Each structure stands twice: as structure tokens, then as C-alpha cells.
Amino acid sequence: MPRPPPHPMLAYTLRRVLWIIPVLWVIATLTFFLMQAVPGGPFTQEKERPPALERALQAKYGLDDPLWEQYGHYLVNLTQGDLGISFTGDRPVSQIVRQSGFISAQIAFLSFIVAIVAGMGLGTISALNHNKLLDYVGVLFATVGASIPNFVLAAFLSIIFGVQLGWVKLLGWGGPAEVADIFSPSAYDVSKMILPVVSLTVLPAAYIARVTRASVLEVLSQDYIRTARAKGLREFWVVMRHTMRNAMIPVLTVMGPIAAFLVSGSFIIESTFGIPGLGRESITAVQRRDYGLIMGTTLFFALVVAVANLIVDLLYAVVDPRIRYR
Amino acid sequence: MASQDSVARTLFVDQHDNAMAGHRGLWSDAWRRLLQNKLAMLGLVVLVVVISVASIATRVSTVERHDAHEISTAKQLGPTPGYWFGTDQLGRDNWSRTLEGVRISLQIGLGTQLVVLTLGLFFGVLAAFGGKLTDNLVMRFTDIMFSFPDLLFVILLREILFGRDIPFLNGTMLMILAIGTIAWTTIARLVRGQMLSLGERDFVMAARALGASRFRIVTAHMLPNTLGPVIVAVTFGIPTAIFAEAALSFLGLGIPAPAASLGTLVADGNRFVQVNVWNVVFPAGAIAVLMLSFTFLGDGLRDALDPRTRG
After folding, report:
1. What share of chain B is helix, strand, coil (3-state, %, to 5)?
2. How far apart are CA B261 and CA B267, in angstroms?
3. What is the DSSP string of B51-67?
4. What are the respective helix, strand and coil percentages of chain A, to the nearest 5?
5. How many CA within 13 A on the CB side of residue A125?
6. How deeply is A183 buried, as exposed, middle or buried, from its count of CB atoms within 10 A (0-12, 13-18, 19+)?
7. ∠ CA(A25), CA(A29), CA(A33), 5° rounding?
8. CB B50 within 8 Å of CB B105
9. Which of A23, A155, A271 has its CB closest to that of B147?
10. Mean pLDDT of all residues in chain A?
11. What is the ipTM of this complex?
């Protein structure tokens, strides 16, 4: 039998990190040719431009080169961290991705935290009060929350709290626009942040609550929990040390899909609330055939999802030492 | 060959088709468990009612009452005896529009799962039986499609499909293709995993030992045993697809007008929500009812088909 490598975890981590490169390459390739197959170019307009101007514009952005050459250029530039130029406003794509990505990241991060805390809290409370009133309330929230689409929720919350009650402001995002302002309280406007985060959070929170409840119930019926109780351990420690740690594993499996869901959700929420984030940016990019920006946003989102899945897989090892690395 | 199969069945308990007298098979067992699940039955009944009402509505004038595209002078009404769900900004009957929206959203949900099933089974079976290299290539491709930002993919594909004149396919079908092309990865992984683990099971080895052909083993023994988890995944896939299409329609990136899915109706109603809230309430409620029913049914099916995971 071959000897196991000295650091299986390290080798596994390395392999998983390196695997992101071919993933991004294939996604870049697919997006590149899909986007070129979309009818109409960035300079196609209702009104005919003089052919000379059209040609000059095409030449300026290298769009008159053969497709394979454009593709090659893009990849070469990409390896040097150059995402190209956005056709609208002539701004570097990397600058747009950085600015709007920072806003989207705040929404996603806040929603992720709220979803985990609310979902796991609710699921655990439900499970610990199995078949009592609190359990029914939790299950009701988890079921109803999982069946209300986020754009419907956003619409209703806006009507109630924005229009009727006038408690919150509706358009835009209340977080800081620059990374430098992240610790200055004056950069935050909480009344603009609540509704987008709540609309985005309810569905994943409901989903996490369902999974957590089932998982905690499963663990509570295990022999080692009975043992822990039998040896006189305080209920608090039975729950915290023995139940939660084991109940985390099924919850972790849904974290990857939830990261992907938050990416999709950001498209909808940002468009609904008029937030200048990356999701809204990428929708307008497709509509304007802004090739550079389409590529940039797709690659960024793909990277986020890939990294989230990587972190989830690595966290398994921390929570569940039984998992082997192949 | 039939005689060999029956020997295999007598010798080894075949999970999917237990022909021995006095024993219930997997399917009747699962059906019995499903019948006992109140929430799943509720979901099933609601779905049967909604689907029948939506599909007979066009033929029965007492149900449909008004044409979904008929414009009247009765604009922005609330629920009244003449217009059960009220009317929209053009005076169209919301009840008829919601029914049409349900029809289109259901078509999207079911149609997408047909595409998903076809692609998922194809890639799953290909990976399981295509040899090591094919398996690796197909599964890595599946992984990559899984990390593709799905809404962005659908939007791109939608632009490509809608920008061309494709014969015989209407907007709804193109939308089905666009969503189905990215959503098959879960089924492919599921089918491959099931096939590989079933290949190690005793009843499959028995059939192989008795000389059953490869084709017969796959079609008679392995596919039926893969069906359970696949049915569950498809049941959960339907509301996901309905949701995806509704969200895209809400953003104005769904099927083209005049066809209106539930998402389009919510988006339309939302523009005039301060005048008439009912234009949003009914289609939004319809989406919630559909999603809830499919989720209940899916939960019930999962518990019924795999008793080990009962919560």
C-alpha cells in the first residue's frame, strides 16, 4: 500500500485552490463565446452610425480582430490582472468590479451572517422545543419564508415600511462606498440597509432553519447525547459541545448553495432597490453588450462561488474529523 | 432472459421489484407512506386542483369569465363579484390573468425539469458507464457548470435564443431551454452516484453473474432504483425553476409580452401598487402557493422513498 502523504490536509487544500484556475478558465471561455453569440454588438444602435465611425470604434476596442485573436488577447491580459475596458464610459472593468463589488459584498456578507445566525438559532430553538408551541412557530416561519420569492418580499416590505409607514428610505444602499470608510460610522445609513438585507435573508434563513432543526433532532436522538446527559453534564454543555458541533455538518453542506443563492439574489435585490452593485451592473452589461464588463462580472461571481465552496469543504475538516481527503 | 431474472429475484431481494408473495414493493410501500403524510397530501391536492382549474379555464367560460387580454373600462378594481381578483391598469381581469400566469409558470416549471431530466440522465449515465476518462471529464464539466453564476448564464442564453428566429419554439419554450441548460448538474451528480453505488450491490452482481446483459442490468435493475431520488430532486426543481423565471420576468428579462407569467404579473402590478395592491397580492400569492405545494410534496416524497432520512 502506498504511504499516505505527510500532510493530507495541506495537499488537499492546495489541489482545491489550484482547481479554481481551470474552473475560471473554462467559465471565461464559455462566457466569451456565449456573449459573442448574442446578436448585436456594443455599437449597434437603432440609429445607423456612419460606417467609418462604426469601423473606427470597432478598431479602437479591437473588435475587428478575428474572434480567436480577441479571445487570446483577453486571456493574456487576464493572467496579468487586466480585465479590459468597459465600453460605456471607457472605465477600466476592474475599477467597476471593485467599486460595485464592494457594495455587493457588504450586502452578501451581512445577509450571510444574518441568515446563519437567524436560521441556526431558529432551527435549534425549534428542535429543543420539539412539538411545542415554539417549534410550530419556527416551522411556520421556515415553511412560509422558504416559499416567498425575494422580489415579492422586497415589493411588500417597500410598500409597508417605505411608502405607508415611511420608516425607511427606499433607493440606494446605506453602506460605505469606499473600503477606507468601513470603520467610520458616518458612512453608514442603516435605514437604507435594512430592507435589502431582510429581503435577501429570509429565504436562506428559512432554509438553514429547516436543515438545522432536522439535524439537531437527529443528533439529539443519538446514544452519545444520552451518555452525556447520563453522566450529569449540564444541559447547556450537552447542547453546545455535543449537539451543535455534530449538527453543524449538514448545515455546512448547504452553505455553498446559499452563497450561490446570495449571488443570484443580489441581481434581483439590487435591481429592485436601485443599488449600484455588481448584480445590477452585470444585467445592464448584458443588455448593452458591454463585453468587457460581462466577462469581468461573470468571472468575479464565479470566483466568489468557487471560493465559498472551497471554504465550506475545508470547514468540514474542522467540524468532522472523520472526513478523508482523496 | 426472464428465467435468469426470476432466479436472481428469488435468490436476492431486488429492492425495486420485490415479486415475492406477501411482500410489498418499494413503490406501493412509498405510496402508503406518502398517503399518511398530511402536508404532502395537502400539497398534492392543492396542485391537482390548481392544475385542473388552470387548464380547464380556457374552455369553461364560467371559470375563465373574461379573456386575459380583454381590455375594459373597469380599471384598477379591487375584488368584486364580476372580477374576483379585480382588474389591472388596463382593465384586464386579474383572475384570468393569474390563471394564465399559473399556466405559463407551471409550463416553465415542468418543461424545465424535462430538459433537466434529459441532460442530467444523459450526463449521469455517460459518467457512470463511460470509463474513467469520460467520468472525469463529464464530472469536472458538471462541477464547472455548477459554479457558473446561474442567473447570468440564463440571461446570456436568453439573449442569444431570443435574438434569433427559431422555428416551432415560442418564448416559453426558449425560456425553458435557457433555464434547463444550467440546472441539470444536480441530477447528473445524483444519477452517477446512484449508478456507481448500485453497481456494487448484491442484486446487480447476482444479475450479472447469471448472465443478464449490460443493457438489461441498467434498464431493469439500476434505472428503476435510481428513480426515487431523481423524482424527489425533480419535485424540488419545479418550484426552483418557477422562481427563477418569475425573478427574471420581474426584472423584465422573462418571456416576451403579451404572454405573462406570474413574475410578469407581479412586476406589472408593482408599478401601480400604490393605486391597487391586489394586482400584486394575487399573482404573488399564487407563486407562494405553488412553491409551498411543491415543497410539501417534495418533502413527503423524500421521506416516503427513503425511510432512513425521515425527520
Report:
1. 70, 0, 30
2. 10
3. HHHHHHTTT-HHHH-S-
4. 75, 0, 25
5. 16
6. exposed
7. 170
8. no
9. A23
10. 82
11. 0.80
Q: Give the cell for residue A34.
A: 456565449
pTM of the model: 0.81
Instruction: Note whether A155 contacts B273, CB cutoff 8 Å.
Output: yes
Q: How many CB atoms lie within 10 A of CB A159?
A: 17
CA nearest to A279, candidates A292, A295, A306, A298 = A298
Rounded CA separation B23/B223 (Å): 21
Q: How many helices (H) and strands (E) does chain B have?
A: 14, 0
Distance CA B194, CA B125 (A): 10
Chain A segment 249-308 residues within 8 A of B by beta carbon are: 260, 263-264, 267-268, 271-272, 282-283, 286, 294, 297-298, 301-302, 305-306
Q: Which cell goes with B86? A: 379585480
Interface test with B, best of A126, A147, A268, A287 (most B CBs within 10 A): A147
Cβ distance B159 to A286 less than 8 Å, yes or no, reads yes
- Cα-only R_g, chain A: 24
- Integer CA distances (angstroms), A200 to A132, A193, B247, in order: 29, 11, 13
All residues at 6 or more sequence positions from B155 whose CB lies less than 8 Å from its CB, including other chains: A283, A286, B248, B253
What tens digit of pLDDT does each residue of B157-197 get? 888 888 777 777 788 888 899 999 988 988 998 888 888 88
A62: left (phi over 0), alpha (psi -120 to 50) or beta: left
Crossing angle, helix A255-273 and helix A278-288, to 10 degrees?
70
A213: distance to nearest CA of chain B, Å? 9
